[in-house]
Design goal:
Blueprint: H1 11-35, H2 37-40, H3 42-50, H4 53-81, H5 83-100, H6 107-121, H7 124-135, H8 142-179, H9 181-193, H10 204-211, H11 224-229, H12 234-265, H13 269-275, H14 277-299, H15 304-325, H16 332-360, H17 366-381, H18 383-395, H19 399-418
Amino acid sequence: MASDPRPHKPRRIARIQIIAVTILSIAGVINYIDRGSLAIANTTIRADIGISATRMGALLSIFSLSYAISQLPMGVLLDRFGERTVLGAGMFLWSVTQTATGFVRGFASFVAARVGLAVGESPFVVSAVKTVNDWFDVRDRATPMGIVNSATTLGQAIAPPILTVTMLAFGWRGMFMLIGVPGLLLSIVWYAFYRDRKHVSLNDVEKAYLERSRPGRNLPPASFSQWLSLFRMRTVWGMMLGFGGINYTVWLYMSWMPNYLEAEHHVSVAATGRLAVIPFALGAVGMLLSGIIADFLVRRGVPPIKTHKTLLVTGMTFSAICTLLVPYIPGATGAAFTIGMALFFTYLAGNSGWGLVQSIAPSGIVASVATIQNFGSFVCASFAPVITGWLLDRTHSFHLTLVICSMVSILGALSYLLIVKDPILVSGRNPPETDAH
């Protein structure tokens, strides 16, 4: 049975939606170009500075662990100060740090640069979740999230050729210096053109459109005790563990895929830059398709939580199967396509991970729940690069790391299936705006 027809969308709301999604999508591309830069320069930096695969894995893991820790205060900051200020400051910080990476002189200064990049990037995804939650009807949220998330994956797809060409032309130091500039400019654009929902005076028609499917929107930010109570909830832990399976897979491939193609299939750095487009392009398709499928099902009356859990479990299971097949596929191009299918299903699941937050969390604490989920997932993901580097130094093979990745993905799917059962209910908060199951 189809859900109730949606109200007419006011013109000003439509304009705000377009501006927000456009800027967030551009930011997503820049964010993941910046984030993937170390993986592209992995081999070159190791040779230039003289660090082992284990220490390079540590550098890659330091980013994800710092990113995870930064998530916790970021949710509270976003709920209290809004995405305009917090994301604008974050974009500025990550871009300045990225430019400064070109001046590092050793392992210690590289660690500082990676921590700064992680702190700056930490508000991005959750700001997008909060923005979409604030400005879109519940039946339309999955598609804009899919657009923004697919833009991040597009950034991963175009990063290898762009970064490879830049590095070959200007060296790895020049590459870092140059790619920080676009983010600096975009941080100014975001702050100039975007306004938080709570700071915009809406007329009755606009309020009716935004509040029709989500009563109780004007709740104050969560108190500290309410925020702490989230960590005692089974559902929240299930979401942290489940999303950890997604981010472990993403970080394994983002951090080590170029090196995998070079080491296992003996392709050049330039060829790797071209081949690495394939997996993340397929991932972008999966991310966008996830949003379209989810909105299609919700509009036809399927409860949002059930919709997103189904996409999560299905996507993560098939991703695990594809990852197991990677070492058995002959040829670099075949391996790239198989990795691409693993990422296609991972991102099909990943977009619904954020959709689940919007469907299962009470009003007023969406950003807090999203950042707690991201915190748990990136703690899990931070093990992927360092375990891979450690095993690579000892086995000189990626086979065992891919088996471990598949197991983590399956465990994440089981977490969503068996642990994430009930909507998140916090004392003094309205329940989620949708049916639970």
